[in-house]
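Subject — a protein and its fold
Encoding — discrete vocabulary of local shapes:
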Amino acid sequence: MRNIRISFIALLITISFFSCQENEQVKNLELKQSYTEHSPTLHHEIALEVLSASKRWIKDFNAGNIEGCIKGYSSTAVMSAMPFGVKQGIKEISEFWTPFIKSGATNLVYTGVSIEVANETTAFLSANWSMNVGRGIIYQEKWEKKEGQWLLAYDNFQVLEQFDKPKENNTNPIASHIVLEDVIKVSKHWIQGFNSGNASVCGNGYSENATMHAIPFATINEKEGIYNFWRKLIADGATNLIYHNPKFKMTANNTASLSSQWSMSIGEGKIYQEKWEHINDKWVLTYDEFKVLKQY
């Protein structure tokens, strides 16, 4: 009986030991920073690559380069061109664009461009469009990276108006793309400043009268207070800021917005809106609202 009691106590000790180990493993798992499978600004780089591919497609279209346009699609791509129908595969897509471009369609202009990065090989682009023969909306261009090249895997657009006679538009066809590229680069610089411990870069990224809502901690008005917030956070050891699944959108000629998931060494959360404005030849944040959803 005594031996049975000793064995039972030993069993309880063993169970308790492994239970503590398991709890510690769960705790460590919970404390692991999210999104570390990629570098802090990799999704910014992907957005820049896709914008470059989109600009190239527009340039080919406006130059009448049919072959270049068709090569912009994957071999199994699907194109929904309303009201003309759904085209499946490169052959049907080619049969749509070839006579269309040969008919004289040109002067393609994208405005209000928005790009969302899903992962390292997928991004989504939407925009308004116009050309000399009509105007419409791009609901979704799904871009996928295949063998090192960004190609259209799905293209969903609609013609909202067909012009009675050709109209000329002198707007830069890729002005919206250029705005987003500038904002993405400035955002990258801000993140790199934070991760290198340079609070001045962070503070100088805001306008003098900027507002920041750091939920649930503080609402701060004006540049100096915002700078002090980031300076203290960096001094307390926060680093390794990563943006994940960002969405960049041009909202006006001198304004763009950014939303994203984020994580850093001390927690993670959601950026609801970064409002970037071009003021005095510089892109700065005029409004910044984010929330901490988990603290490590």
